[in-house]
Amino acid sequence: MKLLRTHLLFAIVVASCTPSVLAATQNAPQHPAVWSATYVAAYQPQFGTQGVPYAGIMKLKFNHGIISGTYDSQSVRPDPLRGRIVNVTGTIGSDNHVSLRFATSSFTLPSGTIGAHGTIKGTANYNGHLYNFEAKIKSMP
Asked: Considering only 75-79, 108-112, 125-129, which range has the smallest mean pLDDT?
């Protein structure tokens, strides 16, 4: 039941992205030098028991290739970030490669990508374990 509830919650949040948010990201040839967005993020182990993905809200600011913001852990089960709000730092290259580091933990996204719609995908690493990571834009100011 919790698995269904989590997947339903994730689907509702993704569906709640307004057309204007999607239009703003579709019309941009590349991401502007300075922009910000609120993301719904989810990650789960690549190997072993998959279970319900860990999830949270990321609020990121992009400023000429430098990323800063926060991640608010909101998983329905205990997760590696233990329900905390942690700082996120990183970089974005001109080739749309993204690198993120979640403070106070060894959780990193060393080589993700960001798509035209702002979706960030990649393989994250936490204490030597690999996780599938995806974050979709929930809203933009």
From this structure: 75-79
Residue 58's contacts (CB-CB under 8 Å, 6 or more residues apart) are 38, 39, 40, 41, 69, 70, 71, 72, 88, 135
CB 42 within 8 A of CB 134: yes
Residue 11: what are its φ and ψ, rounded to 5°?
-65, -40
Rg (CA), the chain: 15
| Token pair of 91 as six digits | 């970089």
**Separation of alpha carbons 1 and 99, rounded Å:** 34
pLDDT, one tens digit per residue, over 99-114 is: 999 997 789 999 999 9
Residue 18, Cα to own-chain centre: how many angstroms?
Answer: 18
Cα distance between residue 104 and residue 87, in whole Å: 8
Find where tokens 């997760």 sit. 79
For residue 73, the tally of other CB atoms under 10 A from its CB is 20
Q: Which residue has the tokens 């979706």?
A: 119
